[in-house]
Structures are given as structure tokens and as C-alpha cells.
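User: Just a sanity check before I run the rest of the batch. Below are the C-alpha cells for the first item. I only need the designed sequence back.
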């Protein structure tokens, strides 16, 4: 019985394959593995502390404080976080329900995480050996200590504010807790706030809030930022 054409074809291909993987003396041929091209190797992300401050203020300050000194969450400033370590924490969260939530890349990008790492590391304290305290010269000391100045009386803020700018301030600093449209979330609903507080009361609350709302004045919010965001909230 003659071998079928299919059997002959398979035998031929097997012979070609064996010859391809062996040298002329019969030894196995060493086939080098493909190396990744330089373009396929991603460079490590370099964080920018200024950009990191903006991202941290928007997403992290509500729990960790404006400067990362701790609030609802722990003190995290001044630590030389590795980007990989911080990335794992941000992506997976800590403590499950009721702890730190996880943030996906659609909200906080890998570059954002590198920037936050640089921002937190910028609070690292200098080593004691690098701190030099100069003693004041005798001529610089006053003969009689001056009496402490009396605190200036509080000034009333103007009720009018820039609602357009206030909307931008709200989006960057308040929406994460109160909702993009002030519909509430982690923080309370702010729609209709004008029925509960006038503009002056809203300004006073933003400047000196009660827990768990973080204190954002005077940094990162300026006097004008507070007036404008209060005007925006009162307009809702």
C-alpha cells in the first residue's frame, strides 16, 4: 500500500524542521532570543512636585491634610516614597471598606502618582548637621521687648464674588467630596445652601470649617478664591 500524500508531506516538513534546528555536524543550533527594542522599554516616570501638589490637594488632602500632615488619614508628608510603592497603595487602596479607596488610572494617572511622590518627598526635613542657627548680635536685640500687637478686627468680606472663577475653584477643590454638581457625596449637598447660609456665613465656614471638612484657607485657597467659591455655591 502506497503512503498517502499527506503522510509524505508531513515527513518532509519534519525533515526540514530538524535540519533547521541543527548545525551541519548534527549539534543543536542555538537560536538567539529576541531582545526588546529600546523603544519597548519604558523609562521611569520623573515626578514634578508642583503638579503633585495640585493633584494631592484635589484627591488626597481631604483625608491626609493639605500638606500631608494627617487628618482623617495618617501623616504621609516628608517620606521619600518610591513611585512603585505609592502606586500600589493608590491603585489598590488600604484597609478595605472605610479605609483609603482605590483610584484607577482614569482618575489618577501613573504620572500623577509620580508627581504626588515628589510632592510628599519635598517635605523631608533636612538633617541636623545641615541646619545652622546664627545667634543674633547684641545690637540686634531690643532694649525692651515690644508688647504684642493687638489682633486686627475681622474685616467683612464683600458679598459679591466671581461666580465663573468660583466654579473653577469648586471643581478643583470641592467637587471630590460634594459632587460635581454639588449633589453631595462624601460631603453634604450644597445645592440650596443659600437658604441655610448667606454669603458671609459661607465664607466664614470655608475659612474655618468643622471636621471632617479640611481647612483649605489660606493655602491653597486665597482670600479671593474663598469669596468666589462662596458666591458660586450661593448661586446654586
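Assistant: Here's the designed sequence for the first item:
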Amino acid at each position: 500500500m502506497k503512503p498517502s500524500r499527506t503522510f509524505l508531506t508531513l515527513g518532509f516538513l519534519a525533515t526540514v524542521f530538524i535540519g533547521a534546528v541543527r548545525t551541519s555536524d548534527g549539534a543543536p543550533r542555538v537560536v538567539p532570543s529576541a531582545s526588546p527594542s529600546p523603544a519597548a522599554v519604558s523609562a521611569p516616570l520623573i515626578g514634578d512636585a508642583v503638579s503633585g501638589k495640585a493633584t494631592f490637594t484635589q484627591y488626597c488632602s481631604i483625608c491626609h491634610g493639605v500638606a500631608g500632615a494627617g487628618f482623617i488619614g495618617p501623616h504621609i508628608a516628608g517620606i521619600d516614597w518610591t513611585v512603585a510603592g505609592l502606586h500600589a497603595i493608590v491603585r489598590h487602596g488600604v484597609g478595605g471598606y472605610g479605609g483609603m479607596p482605590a483610584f484607577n488610572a482614569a482618575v489618577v494617572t501613573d504620572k500623577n502618582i509620580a508627581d504626588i511622590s515628589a510632592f510628599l518627598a519635598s517635605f523631608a526635613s533636612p538633617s541636623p548637621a545641615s541646619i545652622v542657627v546664627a545667634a543674633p548680635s547684641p545690637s540686634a536685640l531690643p532694649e525692651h521687648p515690644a508688647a504684642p500687637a493687638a489682633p486686627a478686627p475681622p474685616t467683612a468680606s464683600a458679598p459679591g464674588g466671581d461666580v465663573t472663577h468660583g466654579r473653577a475653584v469648586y471643581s478643583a477643590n470641592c467637587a471630590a467630596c460634594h459632587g460635581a454638581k454639588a449633589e453631595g457625596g462624601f460631603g453634604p449637598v450644597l445645592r440650596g445652601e443659600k437658604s441655610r447660609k448667606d454669603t458671609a456665613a459661607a465664607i466664614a465656614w470655608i475659612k474655618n470649617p468643622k471636621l471632617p471638612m479640611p481647612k483649605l484657607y489660606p493655602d491653597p485657597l486665597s482670600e479671593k478664591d474663598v469669596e468666589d467659591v462662596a458666591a458660586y455655591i450661593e448661586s446654586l
